[in-house]
Design brief:
With 496 residues, the protein is an alpha/beta fold. The protein has helices at 11-15, 19-27, 68-75, 94-102, 115-118, 125-130, 169-184, 210-225, 238-245, 256-266, 270-278, 313-326, 330-334, 351-354, 359-371, 380-383, 390-396, 409-415, 419-433, and strands spanning 6-9, 36-39, 43-44, 57-61, 79-85, 88-90, 140-144, 150-154, 161-163, 189-193, 229-232, 250-253, 283-285, 293-294, 346-347, 375-379, 440-444, 450-457, 460-467, 472-478, 487-491.
């Protein structure tokens, strides 16, 4: 994965159109800001129960966006990442429909994970209590087969998303077919979506167990054989992130968003700097994604393997309440029981609104994201410093839609002229071009309210200095034709 900024976007929600509308945007207004793009699910359909993360056909492009030929035309111009949705498939898929009609006589019967396959003798209460679930209920759905008796399906996320048995030959065959389709289209990076939940074993939490690590290793080998790098998507304890980073190409740094917010709210970077000292450097750094801001990523791990978190419980509570306050209560409406949510532990809010639309703080947050080791991915709403879309939330009732705005081409053009967005674009172009970021990293300043992040590559250097008390930041660079020993290249004061 190239160590330069990447864009994360839904094709239709950023362009207002299709794949063919995306290339002119990347090569026009966004030129020299991004070296690659992570395209959120573009499979059939893009508007199911979970915005494309519940594919009916994972090997088919939604016709409203284009064709595999359009995808291949884009991959010929830029690096493209796609989601391999390893945990589940839609109940409306042809495979599940066949299973519904024919039961165990269906050739796809082995594809779908049932309660009985994991617990053939039934599950004691202790096993059910041990399950790591993101829903307020147990992850099971009873289904009446047309072919005979009912079955209890494993449904980690919603009753519309039927879990795959990744240990069954039919499950492995399904995932291999998707990888083949990606390879044919020239996709060189994949994100393993919800992979932490993929393996289920009786008597365990069924989340990031040793068998999960083995599954990830095997799938990574298969992807690399097709010329693809692997990014693991896994929300959980920070020690799990560190461990999985040793085994794959890249892992998300999901602890970064809450820790950056905590630092800006408290004017104290102590917790953030502690994380920067231990975090894996082969990370993809994000502040916002299509999902919410994950508080579980900085929280303590619960029994049976307890471990402290990166923030104390009282600090997490204060963080969440400050997000609600800064967003004018919008995040409270869209999070937890306030709306339909798959993961009640995430706070649904745009990052810009989580900072109360304070431009200097927002740009400081983005500067930190760009300077910590890893590949910075910028979510399309965050790129445009977007606010919470309460109208979309009201229409759909889906909490995460508050941060999944549908932009028209005219809106994109208007947003790109805003001073805060222009300053962010300048920062991204600096991160894209400057040779210092291909060198070595050093963190300085022991003062709680100061952060210094520096990169050096021979005579090329780039240094970020943050003053949280004064809420100001600046970047100084040398080399790259800077023309003098230290050049003020960028600062967090928005240009007008």
């Amino acid at each position: 994965m190239i160590n330069q900024p990447q864009l994360i976007a839904y094709v239709d929600r950023l362009t207002g159109g299709t794949f063919r509308d995306l290339a002119p945007l990347l090569e026009g207004p966004l030129k020299d800001a991004f070296r690659g793009v992570h395209l959120l699910p573009f499979f059939h359909p893009i508007d199911g129960a979970d915005a494309g993360f519940d594919p009916i056909d994972h090997t088919e492009v939604d016709a409203r966006l284009g064709t595999w030929g359009d995808v291949k035309a884009l991959t010929a111009r830029t690096a493209v990442m796609a989601d391999l949705i390893v945990n589940h498939v839609s109940r409306h898929s042809p495979q599940f429909k066949d299973y519904h009609l024919h039961g165990d006589d269906s050739p796809y019967a082995g594809l779908f994970l049932t309660f009985a396959r994991v617990f053939p003798e039934g599950a004691p209460e202790s096993d059910l209590r041990a399950l790591y679930t993101i829903r307020p209920t147990l992850p099971f759905t009873k289904h009446e087969l047309a072919a005979g008796p009912s079955v209890v399906l494993w449904t980690t996320f919603t009753s519309d998303q039927i879990d795959i048995d990744v240990g069954h030959p039919e499950g492995r065959r399904y995932l291999s077919a998707v990888l083949d389709r990606f390879q044919d289209a020239g996709i060189t990076m994949i994100r393993l979506d919800a992979v932490g939940h993929a393996v289920k074993k009786a008597g365990t939490s069924c989340f990031m167990i040793p068998e999960t690590y083995a599954f990830i290793a095997g799938l990574t080998t298969e992807a690399r054989a097709r010329g693809m790098e692997v990014l693991v998507e896994m929300h959980g304890h920070h020690q799990d992130q560190i461990e999985i980073a040793r085994q794959v190409d890249r892992v998300y740094d999901f602890a970064l968003p809450p820790l950056v917010l905590h630092s800006l709210y408290r004017r104290d970077a102590t917790r953030l700097k502690r994380w920067l000292d231990m975090r894996p450097h082969n990370a993809v750094t994000v502040l916002d994604t299509h999902d919410g801001i994950g508080v579980s990523d900085v929280a303590a791990r619960q029994p049976p393997s307890p471990a402290p978190g990166l923030l104390l419980p009282a600090e997490i509570e204060a963080l969440v309440e400050t997000i609600h306050d800064r967003s004018g209560g919008a995040s409270r409406l869209s999070s937890g029981s306030g709306a339909a949510n798959v993961d009640a532990s995430q706070i649904n809010c745009t990052f810009y609104d989580a900072l109360g639309r304070r431009d200097a703080e927002y740009l400081i947050a983005r500067a930190i994201q760009c300077f910590v080791p890893g590949v910075p991915q910028i979510y399309y709403v965050g790129l445009l410093a977007g606010g919470n879309d309460l109208d979309l939330l009201r229409r759909t009732g889906v909490g995460r839609d508050v941060n999944r705005h549908y932009y028209t081409p005219e809106e994109v053009g208007d947003e790109l002229t805003r001073p805060v967005v222009r300053s962010l674009m300048a920062l991204l172009r600096l991160r894209y071009h400057h040779a210092a970021f291909q060198g070595t990293f050093h963190m300085g300043s022991s003062a709680p309210d100061r952060i210094t992040l520096e990169w050096a590559n021979g005579s090329d250097t780039a240094r970020l200095d943050v003053d949280l008390t004064g809420m100001d930041a600046s970047v100084t660079i040398t080399g790259q034709g800077a023309g003098r020993e230290a050049t003020r290249a960028w600062n967090s004061m928005v240009e007008t």
